[in-house]
């Protein structure tokens, strides 16, 4: 491929507003172009990388019996009304109407679409299990699109759905998908962690994320420094190590505490440690059910754990007006004593004695509050955000945090969607039963960013050979020099014949510009044809290490496979 015939608009300077390394380098390297906030065009180089990624995915999906197909991105809203998600998905859902007023959405995910397909086409258990998948654009109206392809309004995703008659088949498919995903990311030489994930709005039970550690990762990977425990921060747990102090409960006393709406101010006013205070947070579940959540003052409530415990589609912080109506005070003085709402308390609260809590009266708190005596808890559980340094759940080692990029997620959906949409089949006894589903997604365009975050340096991108847009970059230093150009053309022809994908820089540019662009583009091997061309000698540079070696033309055929093998083994 002649570089003069390709669209590769490289940039000398870092683009304004780009913060993430992957975003900067893909813009500078001429891989992507911003069309609008959160919406990007994949230019020729990026498209070639995407094709390589898709091939790796397709190969592994074929091995486990998954069949590729394609469904529309423009979907009738009535499908989402059937599942109940039209009203619960949130403001990220793109909604529109056609000229006749019929409601549609742009698909952010396709559980409903595939479930309806099975409902309409599969009637017997004999046609199951079945695994279908697609690679397609998805749409989410992100409030703050950022970091290039990491958080956009339009993105490429591989989503697969399994349909089976029993849990045994679902377990087998889930396991096979887990193994396939690991192989996919290994082939891309991507550093990743399989972690416990949250099913969230997808409605999953068993849930596992694959997260790629990166500085700009918006997720937090929580892992044990001794053991194999790994989880998303939303789902991370730790061992409760609290013990009840051997002290007698004191008399409950209401105390004036003006202007102490925060734990910090209250602790200072009463001259106590934050861990001696009960933090009370009022939520509204499913838009109408109040629930008061209690954690220790030095801990934070984990809304995801609360939502999952309640099985709620929505969980919102109560507004000041709702707090006033329900407990009679302003925010900052809410507490569990004499409160007529459901109370959930973190396990650490169970072991607190003579603590402090809001009195549900402006400027007043209770001191010497004791759970069980002064208020009743409807349920205890792990309702706090895990903290770095906590004891790991198995009691061995401590929790560590690192940022990460979510690149994939697999769920066991069960019958969540098949029941709502009526996707049933006749079983062995002739009885109609709902199909059991699983969902398995990979953020395809996100993989571009994840790989770029991990495989870039100050000079540009450094693509692994499995997904690089080209295998070899040939650069004749002076295209006007017939000897250099003829040798470059000869190498291009021979290497292409040998099965390599070659980019030949035939532009009439200075050598320094060509070398800088080559580093930005990040092709694994570069062959420079320069002053030694008369002797049939070229310089081979390994982009990843910067190592250069002079090689005779007739030795390249044996040398290049050695370099590529070394690169393929270097993760």
UniProtKB/TrEMBL annotation:
Catalytic activities: tRNA(Pro) + L-proline + ATP = L-prolyl-tRNA(Pro) + AMP + diphosphate
Signal peptide limits: none
GO molecular function: aminoacyl-tRNA deacylase activity; ATP binding; catalytic activity, acting on a protein; proline-tRNA ligase activity; transferase activity
Record's subcellular location: Cytoplasm
InterPro entries: aa-tRNA-synt_IIb (IPR002314), aa-tRNA-synth_II (IPR006195), aa-tRNA-synth_II/BPL/LPL (IPR045864), Anticodon-bd (IPR004154), Anticodon-bd_dom_sf (IPR036621), Pro-tRNA-ligase_IIa (IPR002316), Pro-tRNA-synth_IIa_bac-type (IPR004500), Pro-tRNA-Synthase_IIa_type1 (IPR023717)
Cross-referenced PANTHER family: MITOCHONDRIAL RIBOSOME PROTEIN L39/PROLYL-TRNA LIGASE FAMILY MEMBER, PROLINE--TRNA LIGASE
Keyword Ligase (UniProt): yes
Record Pfam families: HGTP_anticodon, tRNA-synt_2b, tRNA_edit
Keywords on record: Aminoacyl-tRNA synthetase, ATP-binding, Cytoplasm, Ligase, Nucleotide-binding, Protein biosynthesis
Protein role: Catalyzes the attachment of proline to tRNA(Pro) in a two-step reaction: proline is first activated by ATP to form Pro-AMP and then transferred to the acceptor end of tRNA(Pro). As ProRS can inadvertently accommodate and process non-cognate amino acids such as alanine and cysteine, to avoid such errors it has two additional distinct editing activities against alanine. One activity is designated as 'pretransfer' editing and involves the tRNA(Pro)-independent hydrolysis of activated Ala-AMP.
Family stated for the protein in its record: Belongs to the class-II aminoacyl-tRNA synthetase family. ProS type 1 subfamily.
EC number: 6.1.1.15
Name the UniProt record assigns to this protein: Proline--tRNA ligase
The protein's assembly and partners: Homodimer.
Aminoacyl-transfer RNA synthetases class-II family profile domain mapped to chain residues: 34-464
SUPFAM superfamilies with a match to the protein in the record: Class II aaRS ABD-related (SSF52954), Class II aaRS and biotin synthetases (SSF55681), YbaK/ProRS associated domain (SSF55826)
Gene Ontology annotations of biological process type: prolyl-tRNA aminoacylation
Domain notes: Consists of three domains: the N-terminal catalytic domain, the editing domain and the C-terminal anticodon-binding domain.
Taxonomic lineage from the root: Bacteria, Bacillati, Bacillota, Bacilli, Lactobacillales
Cellular component terms (Gene Ontology): cytosol
């Amino acid at each position: 491929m002649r570089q003069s015939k390709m669209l590769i608009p490289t940039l000398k300077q870092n683009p304004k507003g780009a913060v993430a390394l992957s975003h900067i380098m893909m813009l500078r390297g001429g891989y992507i172009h911003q069309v609008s906030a959160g919406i990007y065009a994949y230019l020729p180089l990026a498209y070639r990388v995407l094709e390589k990624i898709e091939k790796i995915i397709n190969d592994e999906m074929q091995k486990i019996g998954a069949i590729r197909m394609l469904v529309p991105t423009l979907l009738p809203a009535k499908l989402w009304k059937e599942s109940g998600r039209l009203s619960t998905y949130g403001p990220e859902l793109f909604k529109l109407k056609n000229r006749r007023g019929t409601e549609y959405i742009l698909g952010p995910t396709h559980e409903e679409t595939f479930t309806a397909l099975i409902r309409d086409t599969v009637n017997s258990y004999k046609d199951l299990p079945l695994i279908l998948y697609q690679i397609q654009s998805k749409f989410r109206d992100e409030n703050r699109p950022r970091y290039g392809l990491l958080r956009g309004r339009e993105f490429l995703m591989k989503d697969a759905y399994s349909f089976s008659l029993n849990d045994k088949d679902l377990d087998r498919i889930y396991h096979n998908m887990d193994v396939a995903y690991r192989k996919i990311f290994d082939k891309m030489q991507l550093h990743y962690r399989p972690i416990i994930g949250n099913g969230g709005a997808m409605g999953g039970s068993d849930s596992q994320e694959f997260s790629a550690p990166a500085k700009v990762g918006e997720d937090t990977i929580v892992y044990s420094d001794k053991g194999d425990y790994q989880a998303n921060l939303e789902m991370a747990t730790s061992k409760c190590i609290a013990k009840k102090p051997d002290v007698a409960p004191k008399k409950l006393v209401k105390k004036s505490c003006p202007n102490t709406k925060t734990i910090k101010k209250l602790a200072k006013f009463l001259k106590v440690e934050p861990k001696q205070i009960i933090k009370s947070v009022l939520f509204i579940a499913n838009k109408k059910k109040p629930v008061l959540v209690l954690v220790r003052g030095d801990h934070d409530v984990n809304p995801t754990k609360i939502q999952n415990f309640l099985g709620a589609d929505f969980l919102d912080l109560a507004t000041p007006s709702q707090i006033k109506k329900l407990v009679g005070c302003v925010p900052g003085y809410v507490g569990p004593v004499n409160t007529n709402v459901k109370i959930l308390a973190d396990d650490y609260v169970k072991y607190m004695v003579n603590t402090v809590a809001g009195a549900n009266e402006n400027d007043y708190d209770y001191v010497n509050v004791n759970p069980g005596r002064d208020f009743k808890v409807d349920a205890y559980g792990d309702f706090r955000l895990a903290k770095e340094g906590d004891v790991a759940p198995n009691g061995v080692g401590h929790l560590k945090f690192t940022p990460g990029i979510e690149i994939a997620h697999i769920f066991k959906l069960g019958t969540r969607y098949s029941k709502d949409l009526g996707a049933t089949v006749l079983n062995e006894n002739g009885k109609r039963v709902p199909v059991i589903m699983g969902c398995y997604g990979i953020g395809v365009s996100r993989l571009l960013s994840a790989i770029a975050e991990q495989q870039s340096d100050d000079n540009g991108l450094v693509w692994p050979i499995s997904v690089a847009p080209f295998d070899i970059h040939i650069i004749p230093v002076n295209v006007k020099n017939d000897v250099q150009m003829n040798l470059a053309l000869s190498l291009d022809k021979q290497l292409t014949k040998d099965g390599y994908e070659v980019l030949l820089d035939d532009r009439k540019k200075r050598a320094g510009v060509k070398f800088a662009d080559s580093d930005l583009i990040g092709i694994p091997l570069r062959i420079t044809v320069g002053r030694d061309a008369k002797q049939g000698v070229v310089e081979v540079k390994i982009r990843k290490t910067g190592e250069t070696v002079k090689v005779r033309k007739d030795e390249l055929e044996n040398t290049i496979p050695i370099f590529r093998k070394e690169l393929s083994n270097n993760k």
